[in-house]
Amino acid sequence: MRAILTVARYDLLRSLKQRETFLFGLLMPGIMMLLLGVAMGGSANSATITVDVLDEDNSALSGALIAALRAELEVDDSFRLCVLGADDGDGCAVSAAPDRLEQVADKRLEDTDSFGTIRIPAGFGDALRAGEEATVTYKSSADLTAPTLAEQKIEAAVSRLSGAVAIADLTAHAAESAFGPLDRAAAFETVRARVDAAWDERPVRVRAEGTTSQVSRFGFNQSGPGIATMFVLIFTLNGAALLIYERETGTLQRLFTLPVPRWQTLAGKILGQYVYGLSIFAVLVLAGALMGVQWGDNVAGVVLVMLTYTLAVTALGVALATVARTSAQAVNLSMLFGMTLAPLGGAWWPLEIVPPFMKAVGHLTPVAWGMDAFQEMMFYGGTLADIAPMLGVLLGMAALFFAFGLLRFRYE
Top-level CATH class of 49-199? Predict the structure, then answer.
């Protein structure tokens, strides 16, 4: 055991003394974390997502839909609804001729003044009153930070109006059948308004406890864990190049001639790389906290994610050391893997914005499971039990990569 710790200590001190450690392990990740965080919305609490509404119908039902959208989107400070062409105190009045509002909406979307436009077409209200299908169009920004969470809230608002309309239509039809001819439009609107009002007085409500739902999923809360996991991945994979380099120069073979079991020497080198990755991870987590990243209250969970994620990517580095033939090839592969697995795993942007197939592919990497665990704690107040599946997968990956690498490792 003493030999393992001695080798690990030597390798760790040698790595920390290198100038590249400060430049590429601390300074560059910090700069990228800062730039990406600002590009994706700024500080952890400052990002407000604006969604425009283009009401071409201007009917009572389109107004009801807008009210439902407000109820869903403006439940917290993360979203703001902007009704184009209407100065209703929303703070984003846009003055333009009615026939130019669509072009204005597209321009605001292009300039990222808004992240999405909801278009309510002319004839929307008449179609619903006639029992016909009406389509609302939602055009989201092509920018990778476009919040697809808005789509879920829009769906909820549409479902609310659809339910009220369906009940009103059935009630008016039943009343007409039972009592004869009546003012169907007036009966429809009366029932719809009553159902819509009753929605806010529904007897069953959801109370969220132990959650950080007010925390933005963008800005530094995305770039903090994302950049940290990416650079820890790159630096631990680079340990494969060091092993191969020492074999090429004969250093590894000389170490194996010492009166110490060879596996202990190898274990010491792996432990050194593991602690090296953890030290970089710890500094980047601290840097993220200083920038405003809200890592959550589950300190033990954050530590466990750091331990298991670093173990998994260290094991991946050992496996890589048995695949690459030269140290130069290992350096190139570590950079390639790092710059490929990081975006696939959601280090650069949330996996919620990618297609399901790409999300499944991303979860073949340790990055995705590490990011899932961080997001569970940061955005949903996840406990140790909540992140246990992610930790289990990371440990399983570590075991698989270690088994592959150690079985194939050549001591000579």
Answer: alpha beta
